Each structure stands twice: as structure tokens, then as C-alpha cells.
């Protein structure tokens, strides 16, 4: 019975990989490429941070992130959408605050 060149464990001839150490046992055995998950869009993360601290610019960064995500296939579309909605909410809140401050004396 043949042995693994890496760990000297007995291997069967039909095996392409050693079941003990995972090394290939034949020259035609090749490892599959590791799966790579796409990264999360950094602009979407920035938009979420701005939305969390009350920044209306989150809606601009959210829209930019959504466009980038659709073009590149990165992750973070839900983050960008949530940030955009929160940006619009903060825009309305800051508009009401500004309006109340400007018309307070009248």
C-alpha cells in the first residue's frame, strides 16, 4: 500500500489527497481555488457612521455607495440603503430644527 509523502500515512491508490494531512497523493490532483467573498463597500460603512451620528451627508454617501455596489458587486447594499434613508430622516430633522430656530422670535 502506498504511503503519503508528507506524513507517511498509508493511502489507497484511488485517493487523490491524503485523508490525514490533506496533501495531494498524485501529480494530477489539484486543489480548488479558495472562495473569496467580496469585501464590504467602505463608502457604505462611512455612510452608516455618518447616519448614526446624525449627519445628513449620509444620504449623499449612501447614494454613491449604492452606485458603486451595483457596478463592482461588493457587499453592503443594505447598509447603503439604510444609511440613505437615515440621511433623509436627518435632513428633515435638521430642516425642522433650523426652521424652528429661525422662526422662534416671530
Structural description of this entry:
The chain is an all-alpha fold and 106 residues long. It has two domains: 32 residues, no CATH class; 61 residues, no CATH class. 49% of the residues lie in helices and 0% in strands. It contains three helices and no strands. Helix 2 packs antiparallel against helix 3. The N and C termini lie far apart (96 Å). The relative contact order is 0.13.
List keywords for this structure.
106 residues, mainly alpha, 2 domains
Short structural summary:
The protein has 106 residues and is mainly alpha-helical.
Q: Unreliable segments (pLDDT under 50, ≥5 consecutive)?
A: none
Structural class: mainly alpha
Distance between the termini: 96 Å
- In what range is the share of β-strand residues? under 5%
Query: Could you say how many structural domains there are in total?
Result: 2
Query: What's the total number of strands?
Result: 0
What Rg is obtained from the alpha carbons, in whole angstroms? 28 Å
- Secondary-structure element order, as H and E? HHH
> Which whole number gives the mean pLDDT?
89
Shape call: rod-shaped
- In DSSP terms, counting alpha (H) and pi (I) runs of 4 or more, how many helices? 3
Largest sheet: none
Helix percent band: 40-55%
Amino acid at each position: 500500500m502506498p504511503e503519503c509523502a508528507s506524513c507517511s500515512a498509508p493511502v489507497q491508490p484511488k485517493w487523490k489527497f491524503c485523508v490525514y494531512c490533506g496533501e495531494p497523493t498524485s501529480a494530477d490532483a489539484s486543489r480548488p481555488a479558495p472562495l473569496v467573498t467580496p469585501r464590504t463597500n467602505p463608502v457604505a460603512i462611512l455612510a452608516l457612521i455618518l447616519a448614526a451620528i446624525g449627519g445628513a451627508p449620509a444620504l449623499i454617501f449612501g447614494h454613491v455607495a449604492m452606485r458603486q455596489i451595483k457596478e463592482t458587486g461588493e457587499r453592503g447594499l443594505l447598509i447603503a440603503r439604510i444609511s440613505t434613508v437615515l440621511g433623509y430622516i436627518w435632513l428633515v430633522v435638521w430642516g425642522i430644527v433650523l426652521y424652528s430656530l429661525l422662526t422662534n422670535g416671530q
